[in-house]
């Protein structure tokens, strides 16, 4: 666990003073396992994944593995994910030999909020988001930010190779098509 994730995930007890023990069937554990399967990455530091899924306002109290963690909203990981998406996709674009003008179109096709929402929901990741109990549905912005945060979380937990592998598993590279031609 990094010093940043340690500070982001302070140990706390529940209001009654007891700790909640998640079982394999606890809702949070199920969400984490499902998300890891979709991404093709098993997190060494689960608090990073919890942060990527956290859309509850401010710091949310999240029980996991006999401890309640105070987890911040996923905005910071979304910034890392946005940069990671650009980095990995631009390298794939460069390898394809396509002209400069195609990069803007390709980037927009793959990383717009609408595209990220569509991809996230088609993968079922909207079911993993930790939301305020009063929130009735996952908005486009919530899903897009969570997709970015998940890619950022994989990079922070497993490095560049793990992030690229997760992006491939989520279908980001399919748009490049065969023979270096992007399908738009």
From TrEMBL:
Q: Where is the composition biased (Low complexity)?
A: 13-24
Q: What are its GO biological-process terms?
A: RNA processing
Which molecular-function annotations from GO does this UniProt entry contain?
ribonuclease III activity
Q: Which Gene3D superfamilies does the record cross-reference, listed alphabetically? A: Ribonuclease III domain
Point to the regions of Polar residues compositional bias.
Answer: 1-12
Q: Which domain of life is it from?
A: Eukaryota
Where does the RNase III domain start and stop, copy by copy?
39-159
Which SUPFAM superfamilies does the UniProt entry name for this protein?
RNase III domain-like
Q: Name one Pfam family in it.
A: Ribonucleas_3_3
List the signal peptide residues. Answer: none
Alphabetical list of InterPro entries matching this protein? RNase_III_dom, RNase_III_sf
Q: Spell out the residue ranges making up region: Disordered.
A: 1-24
Q: What is this protein called?
A: Ribonuclease III domain-containing protein
């Amino acid at each position: 666990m990094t010093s940043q994730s340690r500070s982001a995930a302070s140990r706390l007890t529940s209001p009654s003073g007891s700790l909640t023990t998640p079982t394999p069937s606890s809702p949070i554990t199920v969400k984490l396992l499902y998300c890891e399967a979709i991404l093709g990455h098993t997190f060494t530091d689960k608090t990073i994944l919890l942060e990527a899924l956290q859309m509850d306002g401010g710091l949310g109290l999240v029980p996991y593995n006999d401890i309640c963690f105070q987890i911040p909203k996923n905005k910071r990981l979304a910034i890392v994910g946005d940069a990671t998406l650009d980095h990995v996709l631009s390298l794939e674009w460069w390898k394809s030999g396509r002209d400069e003008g195609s990069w803007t179109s390709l980037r927009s096709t793959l990383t717009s909020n609408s595209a990220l929402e569509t991809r996230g929901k088609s993968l079922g990741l909207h079911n993993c988001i930790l939301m305020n109990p009063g929130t009735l549905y996952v908005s486009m912005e919530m899903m897009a930010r969570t997709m970015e945060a998940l890619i950022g979380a994989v990079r922070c937990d497993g490095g560049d190779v793990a992030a690229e592998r997760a992006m491939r598993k989520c279908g980001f590279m399919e748009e490049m098509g065969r023979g270096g031609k992007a399908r738009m």
